[in-house]
Amino acid sequence: MTVMNLSINNNIVGPIEVDPEIMMIEFLHEYLNLTGTKFGCGGGICHACVILVEDEQGMLKTERTCIHNALVFNGKKVHTIEGHATKDKYGEIIALHPVQESFSKHFSFQCGWCTSGFMNETIALIQRLKKDPIKKTDVETTIEAALGEHICRCTGYVKYYQSAKDLILSIKGLTK
Amino acid sequence: MNKILSHTISLAFVSVSFTLSASQELIEKGKYLADAADCYACHTTDDGQQYGGGKAFPLPMGMKIYSTNISSDKTFGIGNYTLEDFTAALREGKSANNGYLYPAMPYGSYALITDDDIKALFAYFQTVPAVKQKKTDNDVYFPANVRTGILGWNMLFLDDKRYLPDSEKSENWNRGNYLVNSFGHCGECHTPRNLFMALEKDKPFQGAVIGSTWAPNITAENLLKAGWGSDDLASLLRHGYSDKGVVTGEMYTVVKHSLSKLSEQDMRAVTGYLLNSDEYIASKTPVYDEKVITHEGYPTYMSYCASCHGDKGQGKPNFAPKMLGNGTLMEPNQYNVVYSIIGGIDSQYYNQVNSFDAMPSYQDKLSDQQLLDLMNYLSASFTFDKKEFTAPEIKALRESVLESLETEH
Ligand code: FES
Ligand code: FES
């Protein structure tokens, strides 16, 4: 057993004894009951299982949880799909994250298995663009590059990409 | 009279069908041997037609040569070749269409092929569908463009001799030797080369750099030391996967297009020759010792590797190779281990029931210290000899991997 400390959705988790053999996704599901992160291929291909890791500068990067054991995230600050909406003091959701709003508005997903992965990747992308805006003409290729590794078996990607595009064009400062 | 005529006709039929089936047999034998020689790998581009040529082979200093069209097309291919032309191309690298061939064509190995087998290959290549595709011009400059230079090279290094069986050895071993060294041309990658790019014949199979990978040492001595058994080797060469690890890089296409098609008997011959034994050799695996969990590399292994390769290095069949007893971990040159970790491995598709997902790169995840600890952990937990690496050794390997990744892209 290894003792872990980490921050998940701005809450400190730990010190907690964790079996060093388990994957991060199992840790989220089995230890913390955070089941919003989905297990797809289990082999690092589909990216359904990505969560966000925040670095010292507050920048977010996605990381797969099916090929990385929980130990990788020891001492890190991470965010999962459960942490994006704004909640009141009783834990009730009072507002969705803009990416959540946008995905729902565009009917981007159907079964939803891939959605938390797409969501996290889009959130990281938008944060990156806030820092380094891109030309309007580059929006589509930037989205394709960012979301290109995410697999969706239901909706054919179009609505995810369209939703990300509309959102990026509607938020001030992401394009120049 | 009628009766005589009908007899004659039926006799004629018998003889025609006999010739036909004899030549069909020859063609089939030729096809089998063409697969064993892996002609496809070099003479077919990824999206091109079979044997149409045009595959690029990078040379030093940005030069490139392109393989020839060896389909039966009479203008662009070898459809006009006589058996003599074909033999000269195979054994001496002399092409009736293109002059002296660059020694990227392994004619030094094919020179060992017997006359009968050349006839079979010739019969087969006369039947492969014609591809109307002109040879792409080589992109070479002085002195590499002076083809007569190749003649000099041939005079110095080409040993134009047929395979001579070793009477001290078994038939199986001799068949294996013949296949490995002629058709298989394994030495072309696994034997080091001298300054003139000729094989160092006194160091057969001792391993060599090939592109961005290390073609491992496949001497019997080294294979046995690492615990390779007859089944491991047969499985590796047939399926690209074994208890002792998997193939990657160029070797993937060799398995896919060539070795996987060897008959059971020939596979036994090849493994018998490579392990230098007529007896069945059992695989050997080191014993996993629970004590390794106190090793500095344990947390890194558990963090990044264990979910696929298993906490005790047991791997997952058809998904991620076993680490416990893995042959690559016991290869004297650890370049391929570092390459896999830093560069990742591309996905491989043999068929619907045998395919492997890619392994991601860990270049941006591991510090030099973590990589060193991990390498030492892999060695301490999963090998027989439990080598200890030093920081400069691993750093140098990482740098050379990064350099070759850069040239690849
Ligand atoms: S489940 Fe993790 S990448 Fe597919
Ligand atoms: S919505 Fe079903 S897999 Fe993407």
TrEMBL record, chain A:
The keyword Membrane does not apply. Residues 17-57 form the 2Fe-2S ferredoxin-type domain. InterPro entries: 2Fe-2S-bd, 2Fe-2S-bd_dom_sf, 2Fe-2S_ferredoxin-like_sf, 2Fe-2S_ferredoxin-type, Aldehyde_Oxdr_Iron-Sulfur, Beta-grasp_dom_sf. Keywords: Ubiquinone. It comes from the Bacteria. Residues 80-164 form the [2Fe-2S]-binding domain. This is (2Fe-2S)-binding protein.
TrEMBL record, chain B:
Residues 25-129, 171-278, 292-382 form the Cytochrome c domain. The keyword Hydrolase does not apply. Gene3D superfamilies: Cytochrome c-like domain. Pfam families: Cytochrom_C, Cytochrome_CBB3. The keyword Heme applies. Keywords: Heme, Iron, Metal-binding. SUPFAM superfamilies: Cytochrome c. It comes from the Bacteria. This is Cytochrome c. It comes from Psychromonas marina.
